[in-house]
Structures are given as structure tokens and as C-alpha cells.
Amino acid sequence: MEAIVRRKLSHEVLDRLIGAIEAGEYEPGTQLPSERELMARFGVGRPAIREAMQSLQQMGLIRINHGERARVILPTPETIIDQISGAMLQLLSSNPRGLQDLKEARVFFEVGLARVATQRATRDGLEQLRRALIACQDARGDVARFVAADMAFHRQIAAMSGNLLIAAISQGMLEWLSRFKRELVSARGAERLTLEEHERIYKAIAAGDADAAAKAMSDHLTRANSLYSVLALGAVED
């Protein structure tokens, strides 16, 4: 016989509040009942309510402002990333293989993404990608601007998938890698190589050649990863 596991009251409250939000009882933009009202509704004490509310906030389902009742919010890719970024950055800094695993995952993900973006490209999407490429060219020589433009180029490719989940994952990977990106683009010749590779990716997507786009993206990310490994070992002179 399996033992009966007693759950914390806050977990029960959390499940019920999530169920109420999912059922539309509390729609985005509306406020949840006060702590006192929730205590009476669920028959629990204040600590259980507060723990459940903190969990909801960490999940990106509510926003808590001092002096106000909690307000339900609509989760967005940005809020999802915010909720997990702290843990991911801690993983990168504490796990010897954390960064390597993330780089490998990004190659696998973005190569497939380049193919999808090509297949779903629209005239407007291609124009936005062209502008992102020009922004990269204009930012050459300014490390901070170039990093931002580089990330925007990849974000646009993700956006062209038309899939919010894909866009969120791509944004997360870019955010987690951004702390290391500055060292890459500041290396001698790295900006020039990045621009050439971005142009090949753009031309392949614009031509509707999904195989060429995937190959160009794979070459681009593999080269960037290799360069980072060299820099990390101190083998590249300034």
C-alpha cells in the first residue's frame, strides 16, 4: 500500500488559485481577493495564503505591489524568462558543463529555427530581418551596440517562426549567453566574421532556401562557440 502524503496547506491553496485563474474566475488585469477573504474562503491561516501568493508571483501569474491586492497578469515570454533566468545564470556559473551544454543546445535549436523561419517567412518578416542586419553593420566598432544588434538579429529570426514558445526559448538562450557575448565580438576580426555570417543567413532565408539557411546558421554558431572556447583558454591575444 502506498503511504498517504500530506501536502502543505499552501500547496493546496496554490492549486486552487491556479485552477480559478485557468477557469477564468480571475482574468488578467483583475485583482485577487484580499488575504483575509482568501483565508476565510479556504479555511487556512495567513502563512499558507502568503506562501501560495509568493509562488504565484514566482510563476509569473500575479503581480504584487506594496499596499495593493495581488493582480492577475497575462504571462508573456518576457515574464517567463524573468522567472527562470536567475536559476539558469546560477547553473552556468556553478556547473562546469553548464555553458557548454547551453551552447550545444542553442546550435541544435537555432539551426532548426532557421529552417522554420525560412519556411514561414513573410515580406514584413524579411524586411525586419534586413533592417536587423543593417543595424549590425551600423554598430560595428561599438561593442555594446554590436552585441545588442547581434541579439536583435537572432530574435527576429525567432519571431519569424510565428511561435511564441519558440520565441521565448530563443530569447532566454540569448539572455543567458549575453554575459559572455561581449568577449566574443571584441576579439580581433570577430565582428567582420559575424557580419559575413549574418549576411549569408539572411540571403538564404530571403531566397527561401531552408537547407542553406540551416547550414549558414550551423556554421555561424559553431564558429562562435569555437572562438569562445579559444578565448576562454586565453589563447587569443588582444
From TrEMBL:
* GO MF annotation terms: DNA binding; DNA-binding transcription factor activity
| Swiss-Prot/TrEMBL keywords | DNA-binding, Transcription, Transcription regulation
Which stretches make up the HTH gntR-type domain?
7-76
Cited Gene3D superfamilies? GntR ligand-binding domain-like (1.20.120.530), Winged helix-like DNA-binding domain superfamily/Winged helix DNA-binding domain (1.10.10.10)
The protein here is known as Transcriptional regulator NanR
From which organism does this entry originate? Microvirga makkahensis
